[in-house]
Design a protein that fits this description.
heterodimer, A: alpha+beta, six-stranded antiparallel β-sheet, 6 strands, 32% helix, disordered N terminus, B: Lipocalin, twelve-stranded antiparallel β-barrel, two-stranded antiparallel ribbon, 14 strands, 5% helix
Amino acid sequence: MKHEMLLGALLPMTALVAPAYSADYLTVEQAQRQFFPNASQFVDSTLDLDDDQRDQIKERAGTRQRRDNQRVWRAEQEGKNLGWMFVDDVIGKHEFITYALAVSPAGEVLGVEILSYRETHGGEVREASWRDQFNGKTLDDTIRLGKDVSNISGATLSCRNVTDGVRRLLNIWDLYLKHA
Amino acid sequence: MNQLSRLSALGAILATFTAPATADENLFGSVKGAETMPEGSWEVYQIFTDRSDKGTGDYRALDSTTEVEYGVSNKFTVGAGLKAIAVESKGLLVDGYIPGDYKRDLSVAGFEATAKYNFLSPALDDFGLSGFWEFDYMSIDPHSGRDKDTLSLESALLAQKYLLEGQLIWVGNLSMEGTYAKRGEINNLPAGFEWPTDPEMELEFKLGSGVSYRFAPNWFVGAEINYETEFETEVGQERWSVFAGPNLHYATANWWATLSWMPQLEGGGEMIIEGDDLHLIEKTKSEARLKLGYNF
């Protein structure tokens, strides 16, 4: 019987043929310019978070802060704070989704942009009609999928994790940047 | 085994010449997740299961299922599949089950039709729950490789929970399958060998669970466990067994592959060797499974 060779023959083949698929739509710099066209500079304000801070974020946001540093830039015009732009990764169905969140100095969402999305289904999260749901939201809002943020069928996990990510980043703004 | 060679070539071609798309929830070899496919999407699977070693003699079997699934709506998925079986047994004589040496090359054995309805979405409702139904017709006994007509209807509940934002996934399955079976006649049976050809009914219950952890983008490693027991009209509880083992899943945006290995940890019921702690009449010492899928 030769079929015992089958598994051994197919497995390496499947490993070798995996194309690395990614779709990068915006760079960080492009997103910065899009959200804050009048900014004269973007000050790297990356936050280094210790375990206690990450626990605090999880407690307030209800979702885990996976990284111990959070990328964020302050947009300035002649020294005036125009707002903040976060860049964050959340788990998609198979790969990370990279997105940017712009927040006003008052803690209001100015916009969400998907920088990289690598899944087949659910590319609608990139469409303005879905992303615009976040505009104007603050921590006074629920910001929960299925409540004040609508779902996209076929990309429910991606939608949930981006929504939870926006809520988490707003909490980070409230904790560490509100008075910065 | 020419048919098998063709099938393996098809599987390799399928895996090789595909452009990116997304995978369903086939993180496991045996247990199933609660996610359904997006409306209007298609998925093609090729599943090979290698069943080997009955503790005595020489026994190997290969099951092949080629299946296509379609998302009728975001909550309802249907599928249809073609099943094939290859069996070779030498030095085995199990009264009522395996009537001596036999070899059947990979042959079309039957078909299946499936349906899955999602009651609760694991991502949206926090806890996922789906109903799953499968109807099978088979013309070959998967154990002996001899002629046997079976009609089966399985009904299952599939639960799924995302943990750590989906980095860790738990699934739980509970299923019941009823089977009507009728064996074909065999000439030149060994003297005194029992090979009943009257119709029989079988009832199988399965309880399964698995966890899968995403350790790198696209890569998942997991473990799964299955308890199965079957009751049959002639002997009552015919068998029970516990299989458990690791699995590895890789998914690109378009295609995915899952490899699992499930050794039998414990078993009972009708036994080849009295006092043994594994059920090896209808089961084997281990099952290795390779699943390939393509989404479009």
